[in-house]
Specification:
single chain, about 220 residues, mainly alpha, two-stranded antiparallel sheet, 4 strands, about 5% strand, disordered N terminus
Length: about 220
């Protein structure tokens, strides 16, 4: 076995034992620079706008300064992150930090933006979701598989909330990513005076308009 092969087999990623504070420090740096450039009010508007590009810039800033491979880091299997892919507990901690940032700043969590933050490719995450992982773990029962499915459920929940407000973009993404369908509504008119249902019943009908796909138990 070559020295390089031995290095790869024993590589455990960088030390992120204090990742919460590391990310908090970088968030503060980014926010301070944003305020310096744009002023307090405009910086807040940019960061909290729906689907904010400024928020994506924050994720990229954290990636470059924390998770991106350095010149002397070992790169193998086309990985672009210093995170140890075997440490799913660490990756889940980072997910929880990421989603907390999303909720604080009026953003919806997505797997794609989590990839921007960590450098872990969407393909790698999908492989874990499908129950394929190294070291002989038992497919769909592996910690990686269960954890990634939990992430997807959290993303789905955010889109459901968006769709329930009448946002067509939320419904479109639920259809495209999670197999949702819409069922047509029929409201019978009792007379020219108006519908034969109360406003509360109309609201219930609107909620029923969003139909989730049937899913097998996990």
């Amino acid at each position: 076995m070559s020295d390089r092969t031995a290095e790869i087999e024993t590589y455990k990623g960088a030390d992120f034992s204090d990742v919460e504070n590391d990310i908090a420090r970088l968030v503060n740096e980014y926010d301070c620079e944003l305020v310096r450039k744009h002023g307090q009010d405009e910086a807040k508007r940019l960061m909290f706008a729906p689907q904010s590009m400024t928020f994506k810039g924050l994720l990229k800033y954290i990636y470059i300064n924390l998770f991106k491979l350095r010149k002397d880091d070992i790169k193998y299997n086309n990985r672009n992150s210093r995170i140890d892919y075997a440490d799913i507990e660490l990756i889940d901690r980072i997910w929880n930090i990421y989603t907390s940032l999303c909720y604080e700043r009026n953003q919806k969590p997505t797997i794609l933006n989590f990839s921007v933050l960590t450098g872990i490719s969407r393909d790698s995450i999908d492989v874990w979701k499908n129950g394929v992982y190294r070291n002989g773990e038992d497919g769909a029962t592996s910690a990686h598989c269960h954890t990634v499915k939990k992430w997807y459920q959290e993303c789905e929940s955010g889109l459901v909330d968006s769709a329930m407000t009448g946002n067509p973009g939320g419904m479109f993404l639920l259809k495209a990513s999670f197999g949702y369908t819409e069922q047509p509504q029929r409201i019978e008119i009792a007379a020219a005076g108006g519908p034969a249902v109360s406003m509360q019943e109309l609201d219930e009908l609107r909620k029923q308009h969003l139909i989730a796909p049937e899913k097998p138990e996990l």
